[in-house]
Amino acid sequence: METRSSNSLEKAEPSRGRGNKLGSMLPKIEPFVPKRDHNPRELRSWAKRTGFVSHLSGETGTASSTGFHAERGGRDQRAGGSSPKIEIDPVLGRTKPNRGIEIEADSGSRSGSGSGQGRRAVPDENGNGLGDKVDEREAGLNGNAKGIGNGNLHVVENGNGNGVPGVTPVISEQKHGEGKGERDVEVGMYPGGEQQGHGGWSGHHPGMKVGLRDNPGFGALIYYGLQHFLSLAGSLIFIPLVMVPAMGGTDKDTATVISTMLLVSGITTILHSYFGTRLPLVQGSSFIYLAPALVIINARDYRNLTEHKFRHIMRELQGAIIIGSVFQSILGFSGLMSLLLRLINPVVVAPTVAAVGLAFFSYGFPRAGSCVEVSVPLILLVLICTLYLRGISIFGHRFFRIYAVPLSVMITWIYAFFLTTGGAYDYKGCSPDIPSSNILVDECKKHAYTMKHCRTDVSNAWRNAAWVRIPYPLQWGVPIFHFRTSLIMIIVSLVASVDSVGTYHSASLLVSSKPPTPAVVSRGIALEGFCSMLAGLWGSGTGSTTLTENTHTINITKMASRRAVVFGALFLILFSFVAKVGAILASIPLSLAASILCFMWALVVALGLSTLQYTQTTSFRNITIVGVSLFLGLSIPAYFQQYQPESSLILPSYFVPYAAASDGPVRTGNKQLDFTINALMSMSMVVTLLVAFVLDNTVPGSQQERGVYIWSRAEDVSMDPSSQADYSLPGKFASPCSSRCLRA
Predict the structure, then answer these.
(1) Residues linked to residue 622 through DSSP beta bridges, in sequence order
(2) Alpha carbons 495 and 289: distance in angstroms, whole number
(3) Per-residue pLDDT band at 133 (split at 50, 70, 90)
């Protein structure tokens, strides 16, 4: 079989059977004449002009994959050669560096069976052969073909009319004399050429140490799992340190709630890894639920409770969380979330998530300032680790950047311990067992506040806690269901869903080949609702949702294995059974906890605003919407919070903004409805979401300007084995709904 040059191919005889038929279908396009000393960037530019580069995930160069077929004109399969069809398997990765593209003459002979069984390894950037190879099997041409030709190669769309997403191909021909009569087009994979053992492409995304579906080994799974959860320690354990004392709970209650949160977080993370979106996302107590919890805690009905105040408020929170979680599950399982996704875009998500962190500015440093000699060094230490020492690598790991929060807390806690034992916070003749309200000596009154917030031995949880205790459902009693609190949690669960949508999209760009389908997002939201129901039954005080900080953790740890997240969750469950662990965490001084939360809330604000990277950030439309949403989201709640003359005399200053539900300006005659409206309008995240949602969906703007989230289509995912392995349910759970679960 003789080798033909590009010129001879242009003059191929039209009488050649199938090639003639295909040539009649294709439009006449000026041929692309390749240069021998070409630049790969020029080929990529040609690919852009001809529609090969898609913007499926919102970024130029984002690689998504569907198979496409290429057939060389004038080549008849019946003449003894197989049609050089090309099956381009998924190229995982968001941005792929340009590689040298080698185009060489292909000559020689091939078996005339027409089976197309030839396989050839694809060279990586170092010239090594990769394990994954392109299989040149006969795939056939689908209907409604549309040709894009360069004189040598006819590329055909598949039958569903989808455009060919962008890939970065490595095109190579075998050298003369190697026995090939046709041109082979093969797709380069990642450097190193990882191969997934179960049949799909490797889930190893460029830039990630461990890919989504990688199994680095038992020891590495333990290490990476613990690493992942340690970096999220601030989000997982510090919320009870704020809530339980405000509810009138004891140190033992705080330790129990912390253990419960560890257990619920471990269980829900495992459930989400197997039955949710299957992205390596940690589920836990979110700051989204903290603001409504503080609103309910500071309601007028609970201010005068003295006996069993903690249990009564906890049961009220449990009932509200269960009702809100049922609404969230219905939102996901019914398919309403798929419709809502069309209205949720980065311009809505960014200010809403940012408002979640900004809502606690009145609590942050006012609470941390109760002991500035501990709080200020902690804040500075966290900033130094995350910003100034972030580039320092220890044994190949960015130690200070990954473990900034637990490392800073440990160092500052030891420092506070030395201050306590050194006599800096001596009681000076005052009894630590007398409540502050009963202290008669003025000198003791002035010193009592500092003693309570600065000393490291104030908590007695360690002395009273048992070694082993298993948190169990309904441990605080039967939940209490009220209309007003239930309606608040329903709206808050909607805010949590909006937050999760942005997190799903950001995480998918980091670790997967393409974003999930709307059906997968709906499945994740539905499972989050079920997980919040578990949190309500166990009594953790807050609902369970995807932690926004998780995307930051994935980015800095470069660990995206869902197996590692599951291993870490198992350790979390194990620690929850050891009551002493919760007791140790409960003994963290309040000022130290408030200090680290100042950093965590600021990080939530930054992560929320970073979502704007998917939009045109210089657009006046977007700038105005985000600015107005944030300003009104802070200003309108401030208006509602000023109607509380009684609260300002009873509550601490940092809890006054959360007491507006009982004393707000809305007076409809229905106390339940008044409480609900005043509570919702006093929460920044609710007002911000409402303003941003209305403005973004009514003010004209192009999809590119708005940065509209583009989710994968079910038919694209079904043709991409990599995406199926990323998002499809495991094992037998995927079989009954393999075609239904991924359908938008």
Answers:
(1) none
(2) 10
(3) very low
In which region does residue 104 sit, left (phi positive, over 0), alpha (psi from -120 to 50) or beta (all else)?
beta
Task: Indicate the pTM of the whole model.
Answer: 0.71
Sheet with 147-149, side-by-side order of all strands? 69-71, 154-156, 147-149
Which residues pair with residue 283 across a beta bridge? 546
pLDDT band at 437 (very low <50, low <70, confident <90, very high): low
Residue 263 to residue 64: CA distance in whole angstroms: 37
Q: What angle do CA 37, 39, 45 make, to 5 degrees?
A: 140
Distance CA 242, CA 2 (A): 79
d(CA 529, CA 149): 50
623: which residues sit within 8 A by CB, 6+ positions away?
617
How far apart are alpha carbons 265 and 83 in whole angstroms? 54
Write out the DSSP string of 602-653. HHHHHHHHHGGGGS-TT-HHHHHHHHHHHHHHHHHHHHHHT--TTHHHHS-G
Phi–psi pair at 130, nearest 5 degrees:
-90, 160
β-pair partners for 397: 394
- Look at residue 102 and tell me whether its pLDDT is greater than 60: no
DSSP state of 210: B
User: Angle at the Cα of 612 (from 610 to 614), degrees rounded to 5?
Assistant: 110
Residue 700 to residues 177, 352, 629, Cα–Cα distance (Å): 61, 20, 17
- Tell me the domain boundaries of the chain: 219-302+309-371+453-720
